[in-house]
C-alpha cells in the first residue's frame, strides 16, 4: 500500500510544523517568569518575518484552491472555451458591455453566450449562477 501526499496536504503539514515551532519560540522559550512578559529580542524579530510571510502565503494558497474549485465546477457543465471565459468574467462581476469589449466581440455575441451558459448550468440569472458555482 502506497501513501500519496498531494501538494495541499504537504503544504498544510509544513505550515502546521512551522506554526508550532514559532509559537513555541515566541511563548515558551523566551517567556520570562521573573518579569511575566515575553521578551523581545533579535531572534524573535527574525522569526516573526518568516511567520508573517507564511501566513500570507497560506492565504494565497487558499485563494488559489478556491479558484481551482470554481474552475472544476465550471468544467462540469460542459461549456465551450468561450462560454467558460464569459462565465469567469461574469463571476468577476463584469457587465455585458465590458465583457464584449475585453473579448473584442459584439454585445449580441456575449448575450448569446450568456443564454447558452444559463441553459447548460440550469439557471435563470446571474444571481443564480453565482450561487450555483460558489456553493
Give a description of the structure:
With 135 residues, the protein is an all-alpha fold. It folds into two domains: 68 residues, no CATH class; 59 residues, Arc Repressor Mutant, subunit A, CATH 1.10.10.10. The protein is built from six helices and no strands. α1 runs antiparallel to α2 and α4 crosses α5. The chain is elongated and about 60 Å long.
Q: How would you describe this structure in keywords?
A:
single chain, 135 residues, mainly alpha, Arc Repressor Mutant, subunit A
Order of helices and strands: HHHHHH
Would you tell me the overall average pLDDT?
A: 80
Shape designation: elongated
Query: Largest beta sheet, briefly?
Result: none
Q: Number of helix segments?
A: 6
Binned, the helix content reads over 70%
Q: Give the termini distance in whole angstroms.
A: 35 Å
How many domains is the backbone divided into? 2
Question: Which class of secondary structure composition applies to the elements?
Answer: mainly alpha
* Rg (CA only): 24 Å
Which ranges are low-confidence, i.e. pLDDT below 50, for 5 or more consecutive residues? Answer: none
According to DSSP, the number of beta strands is: 0
Residues in β-strands, percent: under 5%
Brief synopsis:
It contains six helices and no strands. It is elongated and about 60 Å long.
